[in-house]
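Quick one: sequence plus fe (ii) ion SMILES, need structure tokens.
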Amino acid sequence: MGIRIAILSDVHSNWPALQAVGKHLPNQSPDAIYCLGDIVGYGPDPQECVQWIQANANIVVRGNHDDGVVKVAAGQEVVDHNHIAVLAMMKNLEKLSKDDLAYLGQLPYQMFFETINLIISHGCIHEPEGWDYIRYPQEARGQMQFMQTRFACVGHTHQPTIWTGSNSPVRLSYPHEPYKLSAVQKHIINVGSVGQPRDRDPRACYVTIDFYQRKIVVRYHRVSYDIESTIKGLNQMGMQGLLSRRLGLGI
Ligand SMILES: [Fe+2]
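Reply:
Sure thing.
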């Protein structure tokens, strides 16, 4: 018998998307729910998303937008974000309570699970607080050198992807069927994004992974949600335009 973990990431204050995933999850009967960060940022409903994750996720790590909102609240400078992202952080901040911010501010950057040979963080394995992206084979190879585990899960790019092999990692984009990975090689699994997918499929994305002694089985799930409702929220927030368009197109 294995253990089944549902892993979701990059909710980005998209409450209709998270609600749809929340309804879909029980059908998969996960033993635990992990969240890889970026609960907030971009979208209109940060508080609903923070509180749902706080109530339902067993393990949560910090994303760069969670980190950014906490820094903005503390009057610190936020670097490495474009002006739309910073504007959305400021608007998100208006809707978050002190308790919500305290919760985001105590999230760890990385977690390691020896029994299932897994490490998780938001963007990268090595120095996760630097928020490097894993988009190309050389970036995946660089990160795998620092992996003490066989399996790693990340988000950050919003692209469901599996990287396999340490020396010349092979990229597999969003396998539609359950996908078996052996513990002989190293693998980095990008779980995609719940609230702002960027693989030209606008449906919310998350994974369930079954962990066995010598292998894991990864299943990507896509869930339709009421995108128009999120777009309405963005309009009310004064953040229409690019953010609305990208949600509808999944870019
Ligand atoms: Fe993100």
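The pocket of fe (ii) ion is lined by residues 10, 12, 38, 63, 65, 156, 158 (CB under 6 Å). The chain has eight helices and twelve strands.
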